[in-house]
Design a protein that fits this description.
Blueprint: E1 18-25, E2 28-35, H1 40-47, E3 66-69, E4 72-75, E5 88-90, H2 103-110, H3 120-135, H4 157-163, H5 174-185
Parallel strand pairs: 1-5
Antiparallel strand pairs: 1-2, 3-4, 3-5
Helix pairs in contact: 2-5
Length: 186
């Protein structure tokens, strides 16, 4: 993208290569004009100035760009913004309620579950989704097969590590991240 393009406007591209779309971002409907090749991550960062989600690997392998799309965690670097038209997107900026942090955000601060902080927004969004998935009874690879299928999944450290395996922390804050998620789950 041409960095001189004002936020919300499509860069100079052929009209057939640009689209106008609406996303509900952090509870607010936002209309964007974007090049059809713009990823959701780039739309959030470059068009809406929501820079919490980070561009790490740009291949969906590190999780730094994780956001919630209609309540489910996704790697925003892998999705085209036009494919998300009409969807609801929650970024790390949209988790807090004014000055009140989301319980997962509070737990990350309390448990010192970050070092450099680059991966933290993606880790937090992923953890929020993890809590919802477990509460809904969605199993993971390490969920014991004998558990009751109609109830929530118990979040053991192994369960948390498995469910967070798509989010990499280069600083190695994993023990504190697991502790923070356990605290938020209580």
């Amino acid at each position: 993208m041409d960095r001189t393009t004002p936020p919300g406007e499509a860069p100079d591209v052929a009209p057939e290569a640009a689209s106008r779309l609406t996303l509900r971002v952090n509870g607010t409907a936002r209309v964007l004009a974007v090049d059809n090749r713009t990823t959701l991550l780039d739309a959030l960062r470059d068009h809406l100035d929501l820079t919490g989600s980070k561009k790490g690997c740009d291949h969906g392998q590190c999780g730094a760009c994780t956001v919630l799309l209609d309540g489910r965690r996704v790697n925003s670097c892998l999705l085209l913004a036009v494919a998300c038209a009409g969807a609801s997107v929650t970024t790390v900026e949209g988790l807090a309620d004014g000055d009140r942090l989301h319980p997962v955000q509070k737990a990350f601060v309390a448990r010192d579950a970050l070092q450099c902080g680059y991966c933290t927004p993606g880790q937090i969004c992923s953890a929020v989704a993890l809590l919802d998935e477990a509460a809904a009874g969605q199993p993971s690879y390490v969920t014991p097969p004998e558990r009751a299928a109609d109830g929530p999944v118990s979040l053991t450290p192994d369960e948390i590590r498995e469910r967070m395996s798509g989010n990499i922390c280069r600083c190695g804050a994993y023990p504190n991240i697991v502790d923070a998620i356990e605290e938020a789950a209580r």
